[in-house]
């Protein structure tokens, strides 16, 4: 059973779709990535029985960069079970300090650091995707499509969508079938190997907790980035027989 292709128009003041080869300094791709697009659809409608397959990303505005310097904490958040124990009062919370260093804090925490970010400003995109249910739920496709249309049409979401970083919120609206669409901004660029996703999208129940970086050859033609299917040979993934995806 074939699913519907759903299209959203998304926009915001700032965005950062980080190129992984830039290491610790954040430098954004000039266009939204498939993983960031999938995250927007997830924020509106997601269930353990499905995943979203992004098919097309269009930039509706000229890519414009802005240099930002941000404070970031050096420490990592503790495991989820530790945070739950804090919430239940079973353990004393140990906050991450957003200022100072080891000497000023008098602790083992590393404190904060300032990092440079080359972000995008005044962004607007049109993203298209369809639902891919896991095999045992294929008969529920019409109900899933109807639920998404109802949520997106009312402007409802599970949590606030964002552009790459949670401090860069994204607004969205559902594009109706047959609506007249403005043409994409005419930009052409070969992005080389582009980040496709950071999770393994092939296995139920693991797409949101198993780290697995995949890449594809990203080429923008006349403002349009066509995205291949995740299982396509155009998407480079770690060999599952030799190098299984990490579960940490």
Report what the structure shows:
- The chain has 248 residues and is of the alpha+beta class.
- Among the domains are: 5-67 and 116-183, Alpha-Beta Plaits, CATH 3.30.70; 75-110, no CATH class.
- The chain contains four helices and eleven strands.
- The chain has helices at residues 34-44, 80-87, 102-105, 141-153, and strands spanning 5-15, 26-27, 50-59, 65-73, 112-133, 162-163, 165-169, 171-174, 189-199, 211-221, 224-226.
- The strands form two sheets. Strands 1, 2, 3, 4, 5, 8, 9, 10 and 11 form a nine-stranded mixed β-sheet that branches.
- A hairpin with a 2-residue loop joins strand 10 and strand 11.
- The two termini are 34 Å apart.
- The mean pLDDT is 87.
Set out the fold topology:
Elements lengths: L4 E11 L10 E2 L6 H11 L5 E10 L5 E9 L6 H8 L14 H4 L6 E22 L7 H13 L8 E2 L1 E5 L1 E4 L14 E11 L11 E11 L2 E3 L22
Parallel strand pairs: 2-5
Antiparallel strand pairs: 1-5, 1-8, 3-5, 3-11, 4-5, 6-7, 9-10, 10-11
